[in-house]
Design a protein that fits this description.
About 30% of the residues lie in helices and about 20% in strands. The chain has a 6-stranded mixed sheet with strand order 1-2-3-4-5-6, with helices on both faces. The radius of gyration is 15 Å and the shape is globular. Strand 1 and strand 2 form a beta hairpin. It is of the alpha+beta class. Helix 1 crosses helix 3.
């Protein structure tokens, strides 16, 4: 990790895209609002059961405007380099999930990564997770000990 208390080194350029099979990741922003909202609101119970999300207080009911504000916050985090959230898109550019990369707070890991896919994509979640785990441990990221349940612990 960086010499300072920052999440990533100052000279690190975060990836702005990744392809995993039929899925493509790009930074999440307000331009994804309607598609993102449709994805997670259609799959709330499924998302809550996703690995690594059992202790998270999301998803919870919110309006489309509240969702946009949340996406704007994630986009600011990306620009500020305090966290990196990616939307997961299918071949038709529909949102099918998200990947969140934020600082770990457990004293053992340098990044805590969570992801979800909508229930209709559950059969492809394991393959996506394996691709993301490989990406996190590649030269694309500066992490030495990322946590991504259940693959990287």
């Amino acid at each position: 990790m960086a010499e300072s208390a920052s999440f990533v080194p100052t000279d690190f350029d975060p990836p702005t895209g990744f392809t995993a099979g039929e899925f493509r990741l790009e930074p999440l922003g307000p331009e994804h609002n309607e598609r993102d909202y449709a994805a997670w609101t259609s799959s709330m119970e499924h998302i809550r059961r996703s690995p690594g999300l059992l202790d998270w207080d999301w998803p919870h009911e919110m309006s489309l405007d509240e969702n946009r504000a949340d996406l704007e916050r994630h986009a600011r985090d990306f620009v500020d380099r305090t966290g990196f959230t990616f939307t997961v898109l299918d071949s038709s550019d529909d949102v099918v999930g998200c990947v969140y990369i934020y600082p770990a707070r457990d004293g053992q890991h340098d990044a805590n990564v969570r992801s979800w896919v909508r229930e209709s994509e559950a059969a492809r979640d394991d393959a996506l997770r394996r691709a993301i785990a490989d990406w996190l441990t590649s030269d694309a990221w500066p992490f030495e000990r990322p946590r991504y349940v259940p693959l990287l612990t």
